[in-house]
UniProtKB/TrEMBL annotation:
Transmembrane segments: none annotated. Pfam families: BATS, Radical_SAM. It comes from Microvirga lotononidis. This is Biotin synthase. GO terms for molecular function: 2 iron, 2 sulfur cluster binding; 4 iron, 4 sulfur cluster binding; biotin synthase activity; iron ion binding.
Length: 330
């Protein structure tokens, strides 16, 4: 039986950046109970441990994407049978956002399957941000790579968050995506931060990466000039027709370890359980909350993938005694 840790580095709540890969590896490899206790301690020092932020995600432009992300059924490189759609009308987006607010969401995330927005798209996207914000919701968009000028324009429209995942480690990235580079992702994150928009960036687990890739990804995020305010962690949902259709499932305990590591490395970020909750048991989700996850996507669809419905999530939160955060504290 491993002895209780006497290493002060492993029991200290606050940490200073930059994180080293070795330090993060040491945390990830701790006995599970020690790791979860450490993560929960960090969590309690920074958040109300029984509150969860609820976000709602809408696909405003589906499919036909020129990028070749190996996990994505919206890529035009994959024969997934998904029908591509045009950019959604602004009024419809706002109507959907109103419904999400009535359902308890505090943040509305809008995603378009683009490499980057075209100049002609920007007026509509800006109108969406303004319309959704006017409902009293926080706004988030994920539109692909942005130029500094596009980021500025979105910031001027009042966009609160921009999502741009780094997906995995720099080493493994090229195995998953070949149409852009890891540095391109970091560059867009820099433009978003520079424009004064909050950053949402995380990754996907279960793409065939090693534990070291997961650790490396989290260290990269934690060591950004300012860590992302939101860190979505997705469990891969293998999509038929994609390159990763037959990917082996990730060990649930490894997933929980990654959540705990994210919480420790980024103490003040919202760590979100994103895609893949339909493949998680209630007990696994409960462990993720204990490990420091404090945000979920609600609603029965995420872009194109299934998500537990509102009834299931309300029941889950009730069973665990978790309550949604109020909009102004999200
Ligand atoms: S993840 Fe985004 S950028 Fe990549 S193929 Fe899918 S929609 Fe396109």
């Amino acid at each position: 039986m491993p002895a209780p840790s006497t290493n002060p580095r492993l029991t200290h709540v606050g940490e200073t950046r930059p994180w080293t890969l070795d330090g993060a590896r040491e945390l990830y490899a701790m006995p599970f109970n020690d790791l979860l206790f450490r993560a929960q301690t960090v969590h309690r020092a920074n958040f109300d441990p029984n509150r969860v932020q609820l976000s709602k995600l809408l696909s405003i432009k589906t499919g036909g994407c020129p990028e070749d992300c190996g996990y994505c059924n919206q890529s035009a490189h994959h024969a997934t049978g998904l029908k591509a759609s045009k950019l959604m009308e602004v009024e419809r987006v706002i109507a959907e956002a109103r419904k999400a607010k009535e359902g308890g969401a505090t943040r509305y995330c809008m995603g378009a399957a683009w490499r980057s927005p075209k100049p002609r798209d920007m007026d509509m996207v800006v109108a969406m941000v303004q319309g959704v914000k006017a409902l009293g919701l926080e706004t988030c968009m994920t539109l692909g790579m942005l130029t500094p000028a596009q980021a500025e324009r979105l910031a001027d429209a009042g966009l609160d968050y921009y999502n741009h995942n780094i997906d995995t480690s720099e080493r493994f990235y090229q195995e998953i995506v070949t149409t852009r580079r890891f540095e391109d992702r970091l560059e867009t994150l820099g433009h978003v931060r520079q424009a004064g928009i909050k950053v949402c960036s995380g990754g996907i687990l279960g793409m065939g990466e090693t534990a070291d890739d997961r650790i490396d990804m989290l260290v990269t995020l934690a060591n950004l000039p300012v860590p992302p305010e939101s860190v979505p962690l997705n469990l891969l949902i293998p999509m038929p027709g994609t390159k990763l259709a037959d990917a082996a499932p990730v060990d649930p305990i490894e997933f929980v370890r990654s959540v705990a590591l994210a919480r420790i490395l980024m103490p003040r970020s919202h760590v979100r359980l994103s895609a893949g909750r339909t493949a998680m048991t209630v007990e696994m989700q409960a462990l993720c909350f204990f490990a420091g996850a404090n945000s979920i996507f609600v609603g029965d669809t995420l872009l194109t993938a299934a998500n537990p419905g509102d009834d299931q999530d309300s029941a889950l939160l009730r069973r665990l005694g978790l309550t949604p955060v109020a909009p102004e504290a999200a």
